[in-house]
Every structure is written in C-alpha cells, then in structure tokens.
Design a protein that fits this description.
alpha+beta; Alpha-Beta Plaits; about 40% helix
Length: about 100
C-alpha cells in the first residue's frame, strides 16, 4: 500500500514550517520503509495498514510535540499483493509516454 501524507503545524505565527515538518520527515526516514518526499507530500510504502498508520501517527506526534495544532492530509492506494509501487507506478506512466 502507498500512503501519501502531509503533516504540518497549524495556526502558528510563522510562514515557514520547514523545521517542524523536518521532524516528521525524520520519523519517515528512520522508519526503514520505502519513501519519497516532495514539496507537498511524503509517500511511504508499507505492507500493512497498521505499519503505514504507525509511521503516520509518529510523524504527527513529532509535529505535535512542537505545535498545539496539527494539520494532516492523507491519501492511500490500498492494493494487496503489489509491492514496489512507489517506483513501478511512475515507470508505467513513463512507458505510456514513451519515455522508458
């Protein structure tokens, strides 16, 4: 399963949230799960719902440790029996575009 999520402090006085969001990304990177971070979301690939949600929960808690209010956006692609979809989905698009 793929889970794309964005977690950030909400209601703070600063326009920049990079330092706090970095703590959430640290949780993801230390989880050992395949992952990708872009400017808007971090996507993780997990074998089970519980494994994915554990990482998301810990990432939220990392932000919550530095902010009294947290915003979480989450999107999941739940497809049992498929692995390496973090890269395989992009490869299929590249093939369709004739770029692979």
């Amino acid at each position: 399963m793929l889970v794309a999520f964005s977690v950030a402090p909400s209601g703070g006085g600063s326009d920049s949230v990079a330092d706090v969001v970095a703590e959430a990304v640290r949780v993801v990177r230390e989880s050992g799960l395949p992952h990708e971070t872009t400017s808007m979301f971090t996507t993780i690939e997990a074998e089970t719902w519980d494994e994915a949600m554990d990482v998301v929960k810990r990432a939220v808690e990392a932000v919550q440790a530095r902010s009294s209010r947290v915003s979480l956006v989450l999107k999941a692609d739940i497809r049992p029996g498929f692995t390496d979809q973090l890269t395989a989905k992009v490869e299929r698009i590249d093939q369709a575009l004739g770029e692979a």
